[in-house]
Amino acid sequence: MNQSIKIDSEVFNIRLQQxxxxxxxxxxxxxxxxxxxxxxxxxxxxxxxxICDNAFQSSLPNNRQALYTFLKNIETEGGWPYIERMNxxxxxxxxxxxxxxxxxx
Length: 105
What we know:
The protein has one domain. The chain is built from four helices and no strands. It has helices at 9-29, 34-59, 64-77, 88-104. The longest helix has 26 residues, at 34-59. The chain starts with 8 loop residues before the first helix and ends with a helix. 0% of the residues are buried.
């Protein structure tokens, strides 16, 4: 793990909140536009993959103490990040619900 670069956690948390707010606002502005929201989700997934494959891999612990600290953080802060993909079954279930609603209207 690269310990030579320390990030001010307060500054980091503020910046992270700004990024999250921008994403939330973008998603809210795209409400009802499935294609645009899909593009947003694809971009987020792509960023997730790039961070994992590049910066994160090279930052992983390289000794026992660092590994312990890393695993302790995962345990206390909520686990491993994961971006779930909607599978076709869920999409089809949504279509059935929409069709049933339109038939009952």
